[in-house]
């Protein structure tokens, strides 16, 4: 019998969500590609919103590294997913699906990103999920109790390294 | 026959969404109360998340001014609404309901606010809905094309004045 | 100060959800109109999906009786609501909004109805919310423990009478 | 480089959703197990709601056959998934997630099932997605235009055979 196996780290399936805009320039695309590539190389599964821009770039990288990709789509149809998505989840709930992109990862990497990404950053912080920021929004809270805990990364590789460390800690310690 | 009438501005039902944290200190509560009070005084309907903190404060103010309040609740049950909510919409979809809070208003006022509020600010900007900011998050984008269009208000009264102006423009001109 | 007041029964705001198809013939339209009319006459608020067919008919009736109507819309935009909807809630979550239509009422009346209505009947029964059936789906369960508790009505008037009785019982006794 | 590969049929990833109750007796559990087993044996991926009862049984079968399982969870946390789920999607949107269970499969098999299953059957028919029924609800519409197109199966094996045939037709011909 063929035994299909998903990639694992220390015997656990680790999913890393990458959030970023549906439009991006070449430099951001290249960095997002590297992030996806490193995620797959490290045996984690990529979760993203499944569309264009950063979402396509990171899925592209993950597939080139032989990884598995999951796209949580806003639309009712699979056909809107980019071609690097293996597992297409067409939610049909529009951008309310941003919550699910965040919840489905054990850590979240934000890169670049527009207003939708901002909503996802808000959700990540709300749920106390590890957030790794690479060249994305800077957030200044109105009051000190809302100082967000954000892990800044200076390179795509560092972003993935931090994400996996935090994800492993999260799956071990958090109420999942 | 009794003809139930909802408040209107220029013959249109105008809904203003107020977003802010479920916890807040007295100064923020008082300001949010004033925002709710002014919304009702100006014959707009208040939409909020229906829970405690800023959500309670603005609903409290709106009811004291004789207005109508709508609470878009995360839970499956009405009983979690604060006591100033007239129309309770228990969505059961958790904090994915933040999208609906934003979508249900013709303009959005952000006051104070934590991470959930940040997700709502992201959604407001995503949908191109007028956003009035009163002592809330400061956002510095990673790239100039994401410079958010935010209308800053210096007092609760100014926040409501701007919100209603923008809401009237929005219902007249936007694809609703 | 003008004190806006919503209709109440015994000092409580009672909301009745009406579910049915987006397409319907004249006989069904007339019956749905009567259901909406009676709901408003009895000082309950109508909740529906906000679109055409049965949803339009019941809202039409409710407005002719001087009532208040709420439309929980699947789309991101208000403009898709029928013209009898006072309070438009554009959820943007597509037909996942069927859950919210059901949850927002204290009792649910099903009339006629297609497959979307069937999903709403399923949700109503799942949540243990009173379901009044008037000329709608007949459901034969696969096992006796799933025998649904459905209150059959023979006229639109009887449907509303039963719905309000059950709604009053529900708000008094259920965990809301 | 390790190339992770998901099971495919004719070069396409085929997902079959199984819907049924969170509680079930031994006979139903055994049949749902067989359904999951056959899905995996035929190189399709199983999608289900990720909880107990039928959802556990079919995931159990799929894993015993070396397959891949996806659980679309209502809760915010992964920990509520049954132990046979590989890819846990904690949506946090409650039973509104039923829509996503249906949308994520290329065909849907209903077995046994209570009221939640009924909502999923309604959604499956709404979206024109192939529905295979094995010992589940019998539905009698109120009008002939709502006659549902349901493919009846007499054994678990037949249910899976029909589901895969219809799924292959669906991915080839439907607007995905």
Short description:
Four copies of one chain form a homotetramer. Chain A has 176 residues and is of the alpha/beta class. The first copy, chain A, has five helices and eight strands.
Could you characterize what this model shows?
4 copies of one chain form a homotetramer. Chain A is of the alpha/beta class and 176 residues long. In chain A, strands 4-3-2-1-5-6-8 form a 7-stranded parallel sheet, sandwiched between helices. The model of chain A has no long low-confidence stretch (mean pLDDT 96). Chain A contains 5 helices and 8 strands; from the N terminus they run βαβαββαβαβββα. β7 (138-140) of chain A pairs antiparallel with β7 of chain B.
CATH architecture of chain A: 3-Layer(aba) Sandwich
Fold-level CATH name of chain A: Rossmann fold
Structural category of chain A = alpha/beta
Unreliable parts of chain A: none
**Total domains of chain A:** 1
Topology:
The structure is a homotetramer.
Chain A: E1 15-19, H1 26-41, E2 45-48, H2 54-64, E3 69-73, E4 87-90, H3 98-103, E5 107-112, H4 115-126, E6 131-136, E7 138-140, E8 151-152, H5 156-173
Parallel strand pairs in A: 1-2, 1-5, 2-3, 3-4, 5-6, 6-8
List keywords for this structure.
seven-stranded parallel sheet; 36% helix; alpha/beta; Rossmann fold
